[in-house]
Amino acid sequence: MPQIRIKDAALYLGVSDDTVRRWIDGGVLGSSRDEAGRTVVDGLELAQLAKQNAVLPGDPSGVAGSARNRFVGLVTDIVMDRVMAQVELQCGPHRVVSLISSEAVRELGLELGSVAVAVVKATNVIVEAPAVAR
Questions:
Q1: Helix (H, G, I), strand (E, B) or coil at 51
Q2: Three-state SS string across 56-103, please?
Q3: How many CA atoms lie within 13 A of 80 on its CB side?
Q4: Does the global pTM surpass 0.85?
Q5: 40, 63, 95, 120: which could join 69 in a potential S-S bond, CB 3.0 to 4.6 Å?
C-alpha cells in the first residue's frame, strides 16, 4: 500500500498538517514510520477517510440521469460569442470548464454567480499519476 507523508495527506484532504496529526492522535487515522523515520499514513485508509468526509452539495436540478459524475458549483466565468460559449464553474476545489452553445447559456439562464451542475459521462476520462508514485 502507498504510504503518504502527513504534509501530503493534508494537502490532498484540504486540511492542515495539525488536523491530520490530531486525527492520528485521536485514532481516526492510523500511522506508521517510513524508512527515513517520518510519520506516514496508509494511502487506502486516507482515501477511505476522504470519501467518508466528502461534503457534496445537493444537486438542485432534480434530474435523474445515468451519469454519476455530477459537480454542483457556481458559474465563475462565461466567454460567449454568437454561436459558442466557454462556461467555467467552481465546484468546491475543482474548476470545471465546458464548451456549450450560446443558445444553451441563454436557455439555462446562466450568469456569473449562478448555481449550475457539470455532468460528466465517464466514457472518456483520463487518469494520471505522479511520476514518484510509479
A1: helix
A2: CCCCCCCCCCCCCEEEEEEEEEEEECCCEEEEEEEECCEEEEEEEEHH
A3: 15
A4: no
A5: 120
Give the tens place of pLDDT for each residue, 59-114. Answer: 777 777 777 788 888 899 999 999 999 999 988 788 899 999 999 999 999 999 88
Find the length of the chain: 134
Coil/strand/helix, residue 117:
strand
Residue corresponding to grid cell 508514485: 133
Q: Which amino acid is at 2?
A: P
Residue 100, all three cell numbers: 456549450
80 grid coordinates = 460567449
